[in-house]
Amino acid sequence: MKTIILGKGGNQPFKIKNEGVSFHHAQITIDDNGEWMLEDLNSTNGTYIRNDVGDLVRVGKVTISPMTFICLGPDNSKGCCFYAKQVENYGDFREEYEYLTEKVDEYEEKLDKLEVKTQRIKLLVFLVNIVIVIFSLLGDAGVWLLRAGTLVSTGFAAFYDASGLKKKMKAQQEKFYHCPNPLCSHVLKSSEIREMKCSKCKK
Prior knowledge:
The protein is of the alpha+beta class and 203 residues long. It contains four helices and eight strands. The protein has helices spanning 94-135, 140-159, 162-174, 190-195, and strands spanning 2-6, 26-30, 36-40, 47-50, 56-59, 61-64, 69-72, 80-83. It has a four-stranded antiparallel β-sheet with strand order 1-2-3-6, with no helix packed on it. Strands 5-4-7-8 form a four-stranded antiparallel β-sheet, with no helix packed on it. A hairpin with a 7-residue loop joins strand 7 and strand 8. Helix 1 (94-135) runs antiparallel to helix 2 and helix 1 (94-135) runs antiparallel to helix 3. The chain is elongated and about 80 Å long. The two termini are 30 Å apart.
């Protein structure tokens, strides 16, 4: 069994000086079967892991994997964030960059699907309006159809905000773009992820 203490006074292979991190903040235990366990050591600002949608969730004691993203303290310059595997193989960020590249590809695929869906909805609204304009020539019934068409178009515009969905999707994806180097708090751009190099720390 192997135990790594995380914190300003920990025995992790990289120095932690962030003011939001306790002296002995948390610990990772790797048992003889290769199972990883993360445990908070009654830290002041808490220990967090990132879930599947990118949100940080506070934990007490939890089973993790080497690719679990851990944040000691707040998710800013006062805290220290890293992938668990760095406590055993510090300085090799290839696996993290490969994972982040998959996230970029996933985002771009979702964005492409959103664009296709948006174009289809625009075409549908256009065709509906064309049909309604034609039927509007039928007199009183046509006037009511024209009003109904206006409501349909307004409804689509109100409930399907493509630009808003894109912004929401981008914000969700950027939660994953933290530099894998524990000593760097830079949020990566997709181009940096593809190049596998952080422009701030050069790692």
